[in-house]
C-alpha cells in the first residue's frame, strides 16, 4: 500500500527507494500512532446509539419515511464500521491507516473524474473496487463484462 501512496503523492524517485529499501521500510514500519480508535467508554456509547438508531429505523420504516430511513441506515452503517474497526484493534493515525486513507481518497477522486467522462464505467468501478487496507477489483458475476479488443 505504501507504494501506492508513494505514487499517489508524486514521489517519482523509485531509485532512491530501491537503493535505500531496507532503511526506508524499517523507518516506515515504526512511525507510531495515536492509540486505539475506540476506548471502552466510546464503544459503549456507540452501542447505545446503535440501539436507538435501530428503533428509529423501525419506526421510520413503519411510517414509510424514506428520508428518515436513509439517514438512520447511513448512521447505523457508519457506527457499525467504527465498532468493527475498533474491535480489530485499529489504531488512530497509524502509518497503515494514513496510507489507507490516502489511497482511498485517490481512488475516490479518480472515480469522480471518471464519472464526467464515462458514467457507466464509473458506476461499474464504484460497485466492484473494494477500498481499504487491501484494494481489489472483483467483477460482479451477475453482470459479466465483455471487453472490446
Descriptive notes:
- The protein has 149 residues and is mainly α.
- It has a two-stranded antiparallel sheet with strand order 1-2.
- The radius of gyration is 20 Å and the shape is flat.
- The relative contact order is 0.12.
List keywords for this structure.
149 residues; mainly alpha; two-stranded antiparallel ribbon; 7 helices; 2 strands; 67% helix
What is the overall silhouette? flat
Structural class: mainly alpha
SSE string, helices as H and strands as E: HHHHHHHEE
The largest beta-sheet arranges its strands as 1-2
Q: Output the radius of gyration.
A: 20 Å
Please, what is the average pLDDT?
A: 77
What is the fold's blueprint, element by element?
Elements: H1 2-8, H2 14-19, H3 21-29, H4 40-62, H5 66-87, H6 95-117, H7 119-128, E1 129-130, E2 136-137
Antiparallel strand pairs: 1-2
Helix pairs in contact: 1-6, 4-5, 6-7
Amino acid at each position: 500500500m505504501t507504494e501506492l501512496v508513494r505514487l499517489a503523492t508524486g514521489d517519482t524517485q523509485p531509485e532512491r527507494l530501491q537503493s535505500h529499501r531496507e532503511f526506508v521500510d524499517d523507518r516506515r514500519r515504526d512511525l507510531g500512532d495515536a492509540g486505539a480508535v475506540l476506548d471502552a467508554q466510546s464503544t459503549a456509547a456507540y452501542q447505545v446509539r446503535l440501539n436507538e438508531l435501530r428503533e428509529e429505523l423501525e419506526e421510520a420504516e413503519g411510517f414509510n419515511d424514506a428520508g428518515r430511513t436513509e439517514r438512520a441506515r447511513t448512521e447505523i452503517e457508519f457506527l457499525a464500521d467504527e465498532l468493527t474497526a475498533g474491535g480489530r484493534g485499529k489504531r488512530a493515525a497509524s502509518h497503515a491507516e494514513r496510507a489507507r486513507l490516502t489511497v482511498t481518497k485517490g481512488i475516490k477522486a479518480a472515480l469522480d473524474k471518471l464519472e464526467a467522462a464515462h458514467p457507466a464505467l464509473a458506476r461499474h468501478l464504484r460497485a466492484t473496487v473494494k477500498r481499504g487496507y487491501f484494494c481489489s477489483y472483483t467483477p460482479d458475476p451477475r453482470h459479466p463484462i465483455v471487453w472490446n479488443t
